[in-house]
User: Fold this.
Amino acid sequence: MAAKPRIKVPKTAAAGDVITIKTLISHKMESGQRKDKKTGNLIPRKIINKFNCEFNGNTVFGCDIDPAISANPFLEFSAKVTESGTFTFVWTDDDGTTTEASKDITVS
Amino acid sequence: MSKKITLVKYSAISAVVLFAASALAEPVADKLVIDDELEMMTRVAPPEGHPLSEIISGWHYRTPETRALEADSFQNPGMLGVELGEEFWNKVEGTAGKSCASCHDDAATSMKGVGAGYPKWHEKTGRPINLELQINQCRVENMGAEAYKFDKGGQKPLTAYIKHQSLGMPVKLNLEEGDMETWLEKGKDMYYKRTGQLNLSCASCHEKNNGKYIRADHLSQGNVNGFPTYRLKQGTLISTHNRFRGCIRDTRAEFPKAFSDPLMALELYVTWRGTGLSVETPGVRQ
Assistant:
């Protein structure tokens, strides 16, 4: 799924600030427990099962995601910044494809 | 004799229960401010001839979590649909080699306020049309592209994108053009007509019992100022006519086709009932 994620990171911050990061990605999050109404067969599971956020190569926040998470998962977390740099975000799909994005922040 | 006494007792108990439930189920007093910037009009005085004493947006009937989702345009999952709509706005389709943007340029200026005034009178077909049909007409006549089928292709995202440009502006219909008054009456008849095996009209729930619970669902006034709206239940944008059909289906009646005369009349009337409310597209509901 060629989803374009939405990410909110402040453009600037003071050194030592704790900033709030918000992410939202468009994804159906098919739980694997629903049945196809016509055939009665289970619809195969297809969810984002992993999320990771790094800042200048160090992991800031990561999580495993399970089928109970609703469609279009929204994640919000905090990070303490001491230097300017780049946040990179990776969403991993069940089929192995990943969606990547990055945001820069200037710390003064 | 003893039977009678029991009956009286029971009805006394049920009266107490009903009273308690309705006291808890009032629309909440809260203010909808999008991104701490744009204050929305969610409680307004009705226009002349309106059956309710106050028009209240469906936002007031939802849980704190759902209300918070709509108040933050980043968290609002309906905005994914709006962003997709922007892509459709700029997408060249059809034999004329045009996109919406080729003629209308920047939607933020050209479409500002447009969505707040639909359904509008359409002289050529002699009936009111909504935004979805206006888009289709543009696609066929000006772009040489195929009309979107109901709820398919770019219909929902594009409608949401165009209506979103009127965010915060009051819903206001022009009823003076053409035969709008007659169609408004038609819609009103439909609104008050009991239908289906459950013998319910729109008014049974949304006028007489809004603010109360129907099983686990908190009934609102059924205003459409937030449509296409994101329903958490379906996890996607839901169009006005889809919701109408769903509601009619729930009364166990046969439901009319989308964009058919009865549903168009109903959309006109229901939109009029929400006159003065801010356009909330994309709203977030249960």
About this structure: The first strand of chain B starts at residue 33 and ends at 34. Residues 93 and 145 of chain B are 6 Å apart (CA to CA). Chain B has two domains: 37-76+170-285, 79-164.
